Amino acid sequence: MKSVCLSCQESSEIDLPWNYHPRCSRNLFGSPRPPRVPFGTVDVVAEAQKMVGKMSISGVQPKLSVIHDHKRHELAVAERGGLYILKPPTERFESLPENENLCMNIAAAYGIEVPPHGLLPLSDGTLAYVVKRFDRLEDGSKLQQEDFQQLLQTDDKYDGSYEKIANFLKTQSSVPGLDLLRLFERALLFYALANGDAHLKNFSLVKKEEVGYQLSPAYDVLNSRLVLPEEKEDMCLSVGGKRNRLTQKDFLRLSEHFGLTRKQVDTSLTRLNELKSAAERMIEESLLKVSLKKRFLELFRERMARIL
Ligand SMILES: Nc1ncnc2c1ncn2[C@@H]1O[C@H](COP(=O)(O)OP(=O)(O)OP(=O)(O)O)[C@@H](O)[C@H]1O
Ligand SMILES: [Mg+2]
Ligand SMILES: [Zn+2]
């Protein structure tokens, strides 16, 4: 029987025990077989409530900080020193875990750095999204991380633009040229994915030893329009003062503001064009239900046509 890996979501001709490629499980969990989750959605929501305020990973959706207990081969809740973030499904928004895993896989296919991530069944059989923390080393030590709401010192995470993030990177990143290109490609892809909730707290700098501060891997990437059809704006951070009806021109102007070369921009756009069919296949083969896949494909094609 054909089975699908819950991390990379590629289908495999051979049966995948636990629905994970051993290499995908090793990459995410450090073992060829994914850990069991000894709790269900209800427990996650209750535990998440208790954790509010104690965790460094706040955010709107309920989530848990967990570790992989290798001896018991289970995930365990960890108030401190968690190496993973677990986001359960919610009643309010349909299929968020499947949506986020898919978008992160498409981002990876475009060459955007993302932390290891995957879906994992909870004890009640529902799938949760699990992502490895990029601000923690295996020994539990912490890397400095600052999000752009803190860095730009604003009270409103929606009060920002790609230009403002770029201006900060120009002077504060230890690898400004690389980070500006990374930011440009994220702006393009987030637009194409209808990731309309990419606000200032969803961009961070992380301090890598010896290298210094640089843009962190991407996180919280999902198609918000699928779950919020009434969403007013296509992008919540503006591009050239615009949040809607963006076209390739707006992105070209953005690239000029960033100081990218025409060659860099051409390469980013060519790679985006090459991603198109692969991304469409990933959406079609995802675990979203048929109506959501259909809507995702429509949105994706419409947005890609505007920027390519
Ligand atoms: N892989 C990761 N490694 C380290 N920190 C992370 C990671 N993913 C998320 N975070 C941190 O945790 C916070 C909350 O995570 P995330 O943005 O995924 O949750 P959310 O509740 O969906 O957020 P939002 O408030 O944007 O809806 C992020 O703002 C970021 O600071
Ligand atoms: Mg977030
Ligand atoms: Zn896999």
Folded structure, characterized:
This protein is an alpha+beta fold. The chain has 2 domains: 3-132, no CATH class; 145-307, Phosphatidylinositol 3-kinase Catalytic Subunit, Chain A, Domain 5 (Orthogonal Bundle). Helices cover 39% and strands 13% of the residues. It has helices spanning 22-29, 41-51, 96-109, 148-151, 162-172, 176-192, 224-227, 248-258, 262-284, 290-307, and strands spanning 3-4, 11-12, 64-69, 74-77, 84-87, 117-121, 127-132, 145-147, 204-208, 212-215. It has a 5-stranded antiparallel sheet. It has a 3-stranded antiparallel sheet with strand order 8-9-10. A two-stranded antiparallel ribbon has the order 1-2. β6 and β7 form a beta hairpin. The longest helix has 23 residues, at 262-284. The N and C termini lie far apart (38 Å). The model has no long low-confidence stretch (mean pLDDT 95). The structure holds adenosine-5'-triphosphate (ATP), magnesium ion and zinc ion (ZN). The site of zinc ion (ZN) has 6 residues, from loops.
